[in-house]
């Protein structure tokens, strides 16, 4: 029985020894990979706290002249047989909150936790101006302010303090890189985590620092061999922890991890991967700066959007249609951008008028030595069908050289538009001078000269050009006047070319009501249909009246028929423009008769344009014909529709809708004004 009792007693004694040893070991060797708010072994004083859910130990908050301390609650005790030594490794971060420079933090070893008389700012909450009044302290400071009264070397240094804020030894913050073999500077208040190692053995104290992912440097930053720790702590027990303070400026001092041991060999490693992140609060300035950055970014994006929109707008504004087959016409093609700028964006101020198929604008293009005035006509087209042939014919017409033709300079294609560029005629169209009641009357001499100009131009197109050109839209509005009031035939938008001897009649019938020959709807256009239109044009210029006018008495509505009636009444001159005061009666009669001859209902009875030129110049006598000759003054019977004549008044259209009249024109492709 006694052996059993003795065994139980021995077991109990060994268990008690084990528990004491374990408890003692826990109090002298510990490691924190972040801090648990429920761990009561960390004692907090002043402004120190453990931030909930972040596991970060914060020494001071955003308050000026504040002190915060955190230390291991149990003192570290040494047996009489043990040397007084320790080794610690901690990770901290100093995060600036204000522009005013503040103060750092310190790791301390002291014989007591009572720091009565300690002051904030440059004294780290451990000392005052007289040193340490009541508690003896060894501290390793991470200082970010230069205080002259405590002999700081700069505003970014590490120092060893003994019972005073005046460092025994100090050095600028840096670490030795084994890889590069040199010291590398560090900024303590960067907000990035900093590793600090403090090792004391014998009378030697070594301090090393490094960035978070570097290992412990092989060379310490600071080393002092004259520190007697037993004198400082006055015994074989000591408290260890951290202290920080603020001054007029504020910096947040964080401890992220901490490992401590009495012996360097038993120091446990901090697991860097488990450490919490230091909070980076946004102060008012940073918030303002962030808001400013956001606004500037939004402004930059807005400006970029505007620039991109402007780029896309300009790109679409000047977008053109260009196909491979147009390469041969490169020298004759104008860029849309150049025409847009020449016409000031096709502004209303540059608008000249509206002709067949489109609007006409005045433009100014640069030439080698001077500026050239041009007319730009915008012709709408809905598709590409026939466009290749149309452009080819337009380009071919540029080769036409005659003093009484408006020079065609080139073209441009864009989306649903074809733009024709021709020489600008400063005196506008003949149509304007004939029918503008506000302007001066164009005298007969000038009218007669213009008629001979246009006759000469048509003769050239029909007989002298490389290809036969049928204009198909001869009328007063398509005759332009240059600076000297010479007549120039223009608007080749409906013209067609064909080889001599070929059949042109497959071309569609187009033209302007009042000028179209009766056979054009059946057999298509020909040089004969141009002669017919020119005949109407002769009567129009001489009489100062349009081919069809609905607001006059019924017997005068159709110009051809009315002129013939005047001749039958032996008063041919009655048909002439009553505004003409000075004229040659012989020239007027000759022009009116040539006009009736050209407008003969029978195509074979019409003269050629070569003959017309000779008639007008008086070099060839007119053939014998009378107002009762076949085809003279005759019109094809056609039902007159209001739509065909584009009546201006619905009441007038209604009164004429059931009236059968004589008119040669059955297709209206476009009017001339």
Automatic annotation (TrEMBL):
Signal peptide: 1-19
Listed InterPro entries: ConA-like_dom_sf (IPR013320), Kinase-like_dom_sf (IPR011009), L-type_Lectin-RKs (IPR050528), Legume_lectin_dom (IPR001220), Prot_kinase_dom (IPR000719), Protein_kinase_ATP_BS (IPR017441), Ser/Thr_kinase_AS (IPR008271)
Assigned keywords, A-Z: ATP-binding, Cell membrane, Kinase, Lectin, Membrane, Nucleotide-binding, Receptor, Serine/threonine-protein kinase, Signal, Transferase, Transmembrane, Transmembrane helix
Gene3D superfamilies, per the entry: 2.60.120.200, Phosphorylase Kinase, domain 1, Transferase(Phosphotransferase) domain 1
Highest taxon of source: Eukaryota
Gene Ontology MF terms: ATP binding; carbohydrate binding; protein serine/threonine kinase activity
Enzyme Commission (EC) number: 2.7.11.1
Protein kinase domain mapped to chain residues: 346-625
GO cellular component, one term: plasma membrane
Residue ranges crossing the lipid bilayer per the database entry: 294-313
Catalytically driven reaction(s): L-seryl-[protein] + ATP = O-phospho-L-seryl-[protein] + ADP + H(+); L-threonyl-[protein] + ATP = O-phospho-L-threonyl-[protein] + ADP + H(+)
Keyword Acetylation included in the entry's annotation: no
Binding site for ATP: 378
Broad class of enzyme this protein falls into: transferase
Compartments where found: Cell membrane
Membrane topology: Single-pass type I membrane protein
Principal place of residence: membrane
Similarity comment: In the C-terminal section; belongs to the protein kinase superfamily. Ser/Thr protein kinase family. In the N-terminal section; belongs to the leguminous lectin family.
Protein name (record): non-specific serine/threonine protein kinase
Gene symbol of the encoding locus: LOC108828033
């Amino acid at each position: 029985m006694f052996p059993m009792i003795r065994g139980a007693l021995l077991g109990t004694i060994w268990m008690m020894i084990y528990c004491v040893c374990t408890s003692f070991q826990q109090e002298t060797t510990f490691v924190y990979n972040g801090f648990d708010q429920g761990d009561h072994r960390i004692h907090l004083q002043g402004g120190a706290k453990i931030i909930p859910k972040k596991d970060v130990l914060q020494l001071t908050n955003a308050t000026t002249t504040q002190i915060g301390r955190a230390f291991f609650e149990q003192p570290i005790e040494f047996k009489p047989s043990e040397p007084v030594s320790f080794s610690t490794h901690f990770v901290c971060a100093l995060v600036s909150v204000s522009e005013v420079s503040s103060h750092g933090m310190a790791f301390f070893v002291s014989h007591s936790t009572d720091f009565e008389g300690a002051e904030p700012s440059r004294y780290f909450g451990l000392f005052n101006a007289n040193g340490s009044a009541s508690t003896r302290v060894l501290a390793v400071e991470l200082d970010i302010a230069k205080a002259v009264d405590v002999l700081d070397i700069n505003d970014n240094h590490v120092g060893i303090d003994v019972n005073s804020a005046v460092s025994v030894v100090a050095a600028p913050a840096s670490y030795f890189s084994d890889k590069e073999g040199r010291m590398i500077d560090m900024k303590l208040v960067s907000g990035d985590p900093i590793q600090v190692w403090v090792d004391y053995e014998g009378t030697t104290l070594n301090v090393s620092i490094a960035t978070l992912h570097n290992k412990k440097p092989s060379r310490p930053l600071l080393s002092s061999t004259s520190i007697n720790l037993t004198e400082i702590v006055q015994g074989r027990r000591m408290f260890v922890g951290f202290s920080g303070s603020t001054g007029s400026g504020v910096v947040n001092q964080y401890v992220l991890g901490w490992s401590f041991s009495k012996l360097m060999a038993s120091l446990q490693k901090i697991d860097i991967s488990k450490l919490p992140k230091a909070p980076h609060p946004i102060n008012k300035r940073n918030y303002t700066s962030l808001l400013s950055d956001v606004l500037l970014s939004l402004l930059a994006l807005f400006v970029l959007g505007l620039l991109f929109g402007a780029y896309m707008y300009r790109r679409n504004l000047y977008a053109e249609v260009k196909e491979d087959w147009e390469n041969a016409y490169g020298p004759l093609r104008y860029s849309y951008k150049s025409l847009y700028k020449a016409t000031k964006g096709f502004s209303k101020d540059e608008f000249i008028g509206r002709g067949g198929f489109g609007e006409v604008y005045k433009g100014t293009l640069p030439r080698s030595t001077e500026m050239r005035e041009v007319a730009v006509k915008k012709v709408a087209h809905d598709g590409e069908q026939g466009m290749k042939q149309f452009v080819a014919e337009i380009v071919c017409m540029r080769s036409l050289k005659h003093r009484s033709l408006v020079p065609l300079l080139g073209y441009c294609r864009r989306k649903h538009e074809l733009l024709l560029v021709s020489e600008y005629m400063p005196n506008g169209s003949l149509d304007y001078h004939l029918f503008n009641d506000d302007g001066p009357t164009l005298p007969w001499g000038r009218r007669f000269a213009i008629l001979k100009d246009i006759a000469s131009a048509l003769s050239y197109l029909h007989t002298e050009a490389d290809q036969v050109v049928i204009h198909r839209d001869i009328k007063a509005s398509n005759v332009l006047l240059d600076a000297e009031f010479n007549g120039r035939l223009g608007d080749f938008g409906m013209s067609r070319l064909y080889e001599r001897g070929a059949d042109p009649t497959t071309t569609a019938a187009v033209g302007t009501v009042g000028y179209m020959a009766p056979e054009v709807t059946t057999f298509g256009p020909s040089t004969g249909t141009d002669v017919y239109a020119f005949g109407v044009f002769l009567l129009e210029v001489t009489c100062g009246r349009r081919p069809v006018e609905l607001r006059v008495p019924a017997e005068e509505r159709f110009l051809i028929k009315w002129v013939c009636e005047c001749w039958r009444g032996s008063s041919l001159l009655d048909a002439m423009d009553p505004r003409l005061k000075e004229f040659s009666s012989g020239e007027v009669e000759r022009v009116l008769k040539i006009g009736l001859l050209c407008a003969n209902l029978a195509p074979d009875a019409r003269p050629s344009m070569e003959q017309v030129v000779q008639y007008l110049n008086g070099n060839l006598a007119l053939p014998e014909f009378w107002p009762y000759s076949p085809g003279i003054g005759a019109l094809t019977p056609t039902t007159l529709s209001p739509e065909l004549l584009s009546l201006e008044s619905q009441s007038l259209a209604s009164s004429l809708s059931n009236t059968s009249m004589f008119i040669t024109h059955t297709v209206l492709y476009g009017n001339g004004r």
